[in-house]
Amino acid sequence: MLKVCLCYEEEYQYPMNGAPASVDHWDVLFNIFQPDKIYVVNLPEESPWLVHKYVRSLGDNFVRLNSYDDIPDSEHLVFLSPPNARNIQGTTNLKDYTHPEDCVYVYGPDCADLNCSKTGDKIYIESKSDQQFFAWYAAAITFYDRQVKNGG
Known about the structure:
Blueprint: E1 2-7, H1 21-33, E2 37-41, H2 53-58, E3 62-65, E4 77-80, E5 92-93, E6 103-107, E7 121-124, H3 135-149
Parallel strand pairs: 1-2, 1-6, 2-3, 4-6, 4-7, 5-7
Helix pairs in contact: 1-3
């Protein structure tokens, strides 16, 4: 099962409609890769995501969390984080990683380090600079890598 946990951020807003830009980016990924479950940290009650058809189709598999530490203990966590991050450092290169069949890919906020006291696999995406990827961008790369390595 493909599951994802991300952080809702209001910092980046489209000037025309006032909706966070990351909502539209994540929504495209959700429609392409169709995760089985989505956890969202800091999601307000009135969220632009709640009107999206795919999110509505998940029903109880679209879950609001107060913090990353609220992810159920039964979940196999896969943290996406650069090797030079402050809190959780990626230690396994994505190109060498074998994706579990059932896991939650955990992405931190775009403007801050991922902060979670839980344990799990820690992977990173190799790049030619120290600049971090936006979370939705890292998710696109990771989901595609999983799809290719798992045969579709």
